[in-house]
């Protein structure tokens, strides 16, 4: 077996991941929430109330983008602003009860959609795919925490 390079693997896997991503989100579009909005809600569910700057950092987006997304989620009554208990001048954002229920509902729908996709695989490949979940999860965590080194120019 020859050593595979990250570049070779990327060239093989990227087209399939892109196709699956597009098809998955087109077919599981029962929610008015976008993928980025869902990840923000998921972050709030996971980390609890957070400042907008922290959400921007976790999502790797600019502050105005995070602020706009949170404003939209606030209009939908999925999040609410609260006083920062550590710094009374600051504001945090947290999930509302409605936001938590909506996140759970959408996650269940999307899990069901993903299950429908996976049912297309024969049992042998389904079991092999199960082995990849840990690798994909680790890659998501490592890449999510990785920052490109600053350019020296």
From TrEMBL:
Q: Does the record bear DNA-binding in its keywords?
A: yes
Domain HTH marR-type residues, every copy? 6-141
In its keyword annotation, does this UniProt entry include Plastid? no
InterPro entries named among the record's database cross-references: HTH_MarR-typ, WH-like_DNA-bd_sf, WH_DNA-bd_sf
In the record, what lineage is assigned to the organism producing the protein?
Answer: Bacteria, Bacillati, Actinomycetota, Actinomycetes, Mycobacteriales
UniProt entry keywords in alphabetical sequence: DNA-binding, Transcription, Transcription regulation
GO MF annotations in UniProt: DNA binding; DNA-binding transcription factor activity
Q: What is this protein called?
A: Putative transcription regulator
